[in-house]
Each structure stands twice: as C-alpha cells, then as structure tokens.
Specification:
Chain lengths: ~120, ~110
C-alpha cells in the first residue's frame, strides 16, 4: 500500500482480556518497528523486525507482550491479560533495509489507540 | 545511554511568526528525523536529515552532526503548524530503532 496501515484504529477492552494489533508496512520495506506512546508522553521503542526475525525486543515491557511477523510483511503485536497501564497509542513504522551503520527514514502508521477499562 | 534535549519545551506563536526548534544529542547518531505530531495524533515525517540542510516549503532543517545538534526552522507559521515536534535518531552502530526527544509543543494563534 501507499503507507503503513494499522488496525484497528481504536480498541477498547476490559482489563484481563487479550488484544491483537495489526501492522501492514509499506510494500518492500524489510524493517518494521513497534513503538508506544502513553498519554502526554513521548514515544518509546518496543520491538524491531528485520524480515521475520526480531533482533531487538529490548523495549517490550513484560512477558505479556509479544509480536510476530510473517512473510516479511504483516506484523501483529499481542498483549495478554491487559492491564490499565497498557493504555496507550501503539504505533508501527517501517523502513527500507536497516542494520548497523545503515540509516533509513522510518514511516509511521496512524496508530492504534488502546484503552483498557 | 544517549541523552537528547529538545528546546523549547513549549512555544506559542502568532500566525505569521518564525521560529527555530532545537535538538541536542549526546552521542554519534546514525540518522536523524523530524516529525510533526498533529492534534489528531498522527506522526508526520518532516525531514530525514542525518547531516546538512534541507528545505520543504516553509520548513527547513539543518543537522550539524559533528556538533551533535539539529535545528528545525518554521517560517510564516500557520495555525495548522500547531502540534508537537519531535526529533528522533538512531545511535550509530546499533540497530536503527529511533530514540525520540521529549518534543516541543507548538501553538500557533490567530
């Protein structure tokens, strides 16, 4: 597609439920990133994919968070047993080839606004 | 870890005014981007500028990598420029995850 697509755009769920967030990157972009922005805060990195592999998961806040990417394209971020502190906007970005020493601009989707009741 | 500082944290401008936003970073960076987050939360790419100067309409940006800072210039500001401006960069020698500054919140008034 023309840009990074995320779904759903909004998600409201009860504490304790599992949620899945989806990201469809720009076609041909091999690198994919997940970030989180809590209310009034900056953006924090969660996880990075190069192809289907995740060489950097250092930003995942707990073992309730996991992500996968299949076919080098679509990625899903799963949050199990959601807590109120998980409420945030989850943003996905993609870029062309990435790696040590290589810089490419990242392009962001519109995000999924997650609210945990 | 790397330190990043954006200034000013808040800025109020009258429509038509010019402004300069600054981003200081404490380590060598692999790339640098400026983003505008509009009031609807969308994060819009403004510039990818690891070094040098670029211009796009009323906006321009300059990065002096050797001195570890970047500047974003907004000329003839408009109300649609309101929002939060973030600089973000990747640390040289690591995977390209972006580290974001704390942002400059800009309000342009009539």
């Amino acid at each position: 597609g023309a840009g990074v697509s995320q779904s759903p755009s909004n998600k409201v769920t009860e504490k304790g439920k599992d949620v899945e967030l989806r990201c469809d990157p720009i076609s041909g972009h091999t690198a994919l990133y997940w970030y989180r922005q809590s209310l009034g805060q900056g953006l924090e990195f969660l996880i990075y994919f190069q192809g289907n592999s995740a060489p950097d998961k250092s930003g995942l806040p707990s073992d309730r968070f996991s992500a996968e990417r299949t076919g080098g394209s679509v990625s899903t971020l799963t949050i199990q047993r959601t807590q109120q502190e998980d409420s945030a906007v989850y943003l996905c970005a993609s870029s062309l080839v990435s790696g040590t020493g290589a810089g490419q601009p990242q392009h962001f989707g519109d995000g999924t606004r997650l609210s945990i009741l | 870890g790397i330190q990043v500082e954006q200034s000013p944290p808040d800025l109020i401008l009258q429509e038509g005014a010019n402004s300069t936003l600054r981003c200081n970073f404490s380590d060598s960076v692999n790339n640098l981007q400026w983003f505008h987050q509009n009031p609807w939360g969308q994060l819009i790419n403004l510039f990818y500028i690891p070094s040098g100067t670029k211009q796009n309409g009323r906006l321009s940006a300059t990065t002096v990598a050797t001195e570890r800072y970047s500047l974003l210039y907004i000329s003839s500001s408009q109300t649609t420029d309101s929002g939060v401006y973030f600089c973000a960069f990747a640390i040289t020698g690591t995977a390209s995850k972006l580290t974001f500054g704390t942002g400059t919140r800009l309000q342009v008034t009539l």
